[in-house]
Amino acid sequence: MFTTTTTTAVATAGLLLGGIATAAPATAAQSAAASSSASASVSQTVTARYDCGAYGVTDLTLEASASGGVGSVRISTSGGLAPFDIPADSISATLRLERAAGGTAVFSGTANDAAAAGQPVTIGPLTGAVSAGDSLDSYVPAAGSGDVSLSLDVLGIANTCNAVGKQTPGPIVF
Predict the structure, then answer these.
(1) Fewer CB within 10 A of the terminal residue: the chain, N end or C end?
(2) Using 50, 70 and 90 to split pLDDT, how confident is the model at 118?
(3) How far is CA 111 from the centre of its chain?
(4) Is 8 helix (H, G, I), strand (E, B) or coil?
(5) Quick one: pLDDT at residue 119?
């Protein structure tokens, strides 16, 4: 029984985050408040391609907003990726994005919408500190570095994914 449960959990994590279905590039939907301060509300949507190792390559949609110096990112898959019902708030994630000015911004949290079997999965909001003018793009780790763009714990199973290119249509600007 343990082997079957473990195998099912590993397969589930792979199906949830792997390349079972890839999305067509999303159309950018960007709107920014008139104010340029970090306390202004900003909402943007971009798409990025991630390699989740043995689980495949998939496009993820990142929806970002900020208010009062706190950034929020939701990550969505496309297609029917949940192999069975995924309970709400059962996925922990850490997303690392590269700052144009140097360094990285980290967004983390344990949050996800409940997803019925065969439905897309949405993770987040993941939160992190942002400043006015921050320009954040996919963090693409250097080959052999051991760095990770996105780490996940899905129902107790750890998985990592790395961005393979920059976001489309471009960076998220707060």
Answers:
(1) N
(2) confident
(3) 12
(4) helix
(5) 85
CA dist., res. 140 & res. 167, Å (int):
10
User: What value does the mean pLDDT take over residues 69-75?
Assistant: 95
How far is it, in rounded angstroms, from Cα 24 to Cα 60? 10
Q: Using one digit for the tens of pLDDT, what is the confidence trace for 1-27?
A: 333 333 333 333 343 444 333 333 333
- The reported pLDDT for the residue numbered 7 is 32
- Identify whether the C-beta of residue 43 lies closer than 8 Å to the C-beta of residue 63: yes
CB 172 within 8 A of CB 138: no
For residues 108 and 56, what is the distance between their CA atoms, to the nearest angstrom?
23
What Rg value do the Cα atoms of the chain yield, rounded? 16
pLDDT of residue 42: 63
SS3 60: strand
Interacting residues of 5 by C-beta distance below 8 A, sequence separation 6+:
none
pTM as predicted: 0.77
Do residues 85 and 123 make contact, with C-beta atoms less than 8 angstroms apart?
no
Token match 């939907």: residue?
29
Rounded distance between C-alpha atoms, residue 14 and residue 21, angstroms? 12
Nearest 5°: the CA angle 158, 140, 22 is: 65
For β-strands 135-138 and 172-173, DSSP reports them as: antiparallel
